[in-house]
Amino acid sequence: MSVPISAYLTLAAVLFGLGTVGVLISRNVIVLFMCIELMLNAANMALIAFSRALNLMDGHVMVFLVMTVAAAEAAVGLGMIITIHRNRETINIDRFDLMKW
Amino acid sequence: MTLDAVIFVISAVVAIFGAAMMIAQRNPVASVLYLILSLVAQSVIYVQLGALFVGVMLVIVYAGAIMVLFLFVIMLLNLRGGEDLGRPSGRISRFTKYAVTLLLFIELIFVIRGVALPPVADVVSSQPDAFGSVRAVSMLLFTRYLYPFQLTGVLMLIAVVGAVVIARKERTDELPEETASEAASPEKSREGTQE
Known about the structure:
The complex is a heterodimer.
Chain A: H1 5-25, H2 29-54, H3 58-88
Helix pairs in contact in A: 1-2, 2-3
Chain B: H1 3-24, H2 28-48, H3 52-77, H4 94-114, H5 134-142, H6 146-167, H7 177-180, H8 186-194
């Protein structure tokens, strides 16, 4: 195989960095959620690359668990977004300050 | 440049392009579509790394199901990208955010450079119990990782029930005047208040 594992890990790092930038700068809460999904995917890619490097399939199982957690998080989070949008008429993350004091 | 490297470079460029465009878009529907583009490119890389089953699951579960959930919520809230999101909160400047992310990225690169990885062999094959095939992954999932696997089922149940409870409209405890008079027909009044 001609592509080294570190290239895959670097790609995962780039995607994780893009996700971090998105979480920090986006003000639309739905885009922010998608950036979190992107960060989870970057971690998944690192897991897949490591399991290939070590020739173990445990990483694939971990990816399944991460995908399940991502799906659960998306379902609950989008429910919360709907409720807050219904009460406050906004999707701006800066206005989501119910638990701030 | 071998075929492997060509495939990797093309998929990596598409994945990064999709992710960057997702952040840059104002319209959330376009954001979702760019994220799907990025996910498909990532699944190509999964397959290249020998994770055939997980790569297919990424497209089916992520691009197919979770992204449709996002689209559904966007349609439900009727977002078109023209919403006034207000001015950015000025407590932390945008430059600081980029700088912190760059620092994190450099740190990750240092870690990747520092770790010694064994060279990998070509393992992608179409044998039924080859590395990353359905049979091999599920064998591991249903033996060594059976307990975590069952726990994810519980997690999904909690998440689904929780999502329904959170997103449901608050039911008003006292009935409105006109429905209170219809108390003689209980089904009708319940229909009116539950919504």
